[in-house]
Design the sequence.
């Protein structure tokens, strides 16, 4: 697949904008476990009133459940927000034509998250492996491709 320099510029710009949009969505999705995190903190700190009916829970059960909620939700939040930051940096790197290897690594990680991440990561990888695009990231001047002379 041979792209013109104008097409490469257009695709890099579109990919950068798309990464910003997806990063915003990933950040938003990473906020949903905040409810579980808050619930876990409430269980750990004992903010819930004791039950007036039935037997009380076994000693330490609420602390253990709260700990699970905090650790699991906190891990999901941290990973989602770190992924969103990586996508924002990737989008900025595509705009400024810097950090080619970083862009490839993040695109490969993105490709693991189907379906949107797979499509976005694959398209980013396909564009970044083009020699002329790599040359743009290295600061070389890229000349438009020339047609081979026809014999005839």
Sequence:
């Amino acid at each position: 697949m041979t792209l013109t320099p104008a097409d490469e510029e257009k695709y890099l710009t579109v990919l950068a904008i798309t990464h910003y949009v997806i990063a915003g969505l990933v950040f938003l999705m990473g906020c949903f476990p905040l409810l579980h995190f808050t619930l876990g903190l409430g269980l750990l700190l004992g903010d819930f009133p004791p039950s007036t009916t039935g037997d009380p829970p076994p000693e330490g059960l609420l602390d253990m459940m709260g700990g699970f909620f905090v650790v699991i939700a906190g891990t999901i939040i941290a990973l989602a927000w770190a992924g969103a930051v990586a996508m924002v940096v990737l989008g900025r790197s595509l705009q400024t034509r810097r950090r080619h290897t970083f862009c490839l690594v993040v695109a490969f990680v993105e490709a693991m998250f189907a379906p949107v991440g797979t499509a976005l990561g694959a398209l980013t990888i396909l564009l970044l492996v083009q020699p002329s695009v790599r040359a743009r990231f290295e600061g070389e001047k890229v000349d438009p491709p020339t047609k081979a002379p026809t014999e005839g």
Observations:
- The CA atoms of residues 111 and 119 lie 7 Å apart.
- The two ends are 26 Å apart (CA to CA).
